[in-house]
Structures are given as C-alpha cells and as structure tokens.
Amino acid sequence: MKARVLIEFHDKSNFAKVYKVDDVIDITKERYDELRALKLVEEIRERVNKSNSQESKV
Description:
Oligomer: single chain
Radius of gyration: 16 Å
Low-confidence stretches: none
Strand content: 15-25%
Helix content: 10-25%
Strand order of the largest sheet: 4-1-5
Structural class: alpha+beta
C-alpha cells in the first residue's frame, strides 16, 4: 500500500535511510499500521475515475 510521510523519520532496519515529509512510500499493511499508530504516515487512496473505466461505444 502507498502512504505519505507526515513527519520525517529513519527506517527501522536501515538508519541511514531517512523518509522526508511528503515522500510517498510503498509499505506493507502491517508496517503501515505501525507507522500510522505513531502518526508518521497517512494512507494514499487511489482515485478511480469512473468516466475512464467505462468504454464509449460509437
């Protein structure tokens, strides 16, 4: 799942990796739950454009 970083933080397994505010990261649901509990990230929900999902018949 994709999440947006709200507060800068270091990766828990690689302290050299820093996630900056507004970075978009791809993480597991379990990791998202951990980071969300700490208020470090928010979920990015993909928008579904209904007009593009239906084909026009001409």
